[in-house]
């Protein structure tokens, strides 16, 4: 069986604007806040603090965007995964639920503003997101999404069969949910742009600087790397699914779920005029998701979760991706070549919402984005910056919790849930006499 490409062979690495020049930490620095991790969460935290005159140092083990921020599919849809808004209110309680709902559903305002204000070159397109209904019964769920998301200020609507086909080019859907504020991008380009913005605002970024430990030094914290150290009043860990060291047991606060992303060759203009002609992001609506969109070169970038041979056998995976794409878009006549394959890792939590941990007085960590990377990571920086600036915990948008390990069942529950969704969707389609995708 073939191996998937490493990070340096992903589409984003091949096409993103070069990263800003940085180097490893090889000295002793002092700061108000030390941020560990240069993904979206860490960089937006540092950016918010630097803009307010806080002396902030960011330490990154690899390079800016190396983890999930540079490996995701580039979708930017400000919604929640799995749980409905009503369920979140019950689960989180007030005022936490309403605060987080507001931050998440308005996250693309923050994304688009940072891209605009710092002239970030990241292929940003804000042309909407469509979740399709492959069977008539799925429309009831989508109607519920319209009502609940619009009630909190989002701009979404239910679209009929004719409009979903006009927007996406696919004749397979009975209707869909259109979220007009969603967008897509080159996610590594965005991460690198945020890194440049942090440096532009006076923040300090050191890459190739893995944190080996944190210890008290007087009334402050000393963050140690192989060749240097940062002494700071406060420390923020924002390493997400790529947490490997730095604070005891932080890497046990989540469980990993892998996802793969792949990209075709640039499609010819005739095909592009018929497939996603309005450059939207498309979700086929099944629980075992197939999500896709274009990049700036006209490549279809699609993602799914590994399941069985899918994600292990490259030839088989290539066939699955092609068959699903051509089933959704039978007008595709040209051969499909999947020229890029790569994996990302999600830091999964039971609640599928981020968790803010108080590790010690003056030290916090945030993990558990659970796959809502671009918009969620971009808005979390505002919450962590507020924590670092001394906003009372009772006024934050996330409750500060003691560090606790993710339950063991999270090692397998998300995968079982995907299989359950796949089975349920197929059975429902059979009952309703709807077409079933290949390999479903």
UniProtKB/TrEMBL annotation:
InterPro entries in UniProt: FAD-dep_OxRdtase (IPR006076), FAD/NAD-bd_sf (IPR036188)
PANTHER family of this UniProt entry?
A: FAD DEPENDENT OXIDOREDUCTASE DOMAIN-CONTAINING PROTEIN (PTHR13847:SF281), SARCOSINE DEHYDROGENASE-RELATED (PTHR13847)
**What keyword terms does UniProt attach to this protein?**
Oxidoreductase
Q: Which residues form the FAD dependent oxidoreductase domain?
A: 32-387
Q: Does the keyword Cell membrane apply?
A: no
Entry EC number(s): 1.-.-.-
Instruction: Look up keyword Oxidoreductase and say if it applies.
Output: yes
Q: Provide the top EC class.
A: oxidoreductase
Q: What is this protein called?
A: NAD(P)/FAD-dependent oxidoreductase
Gene Ontology MF terms in the entry: oxidoreductase activity
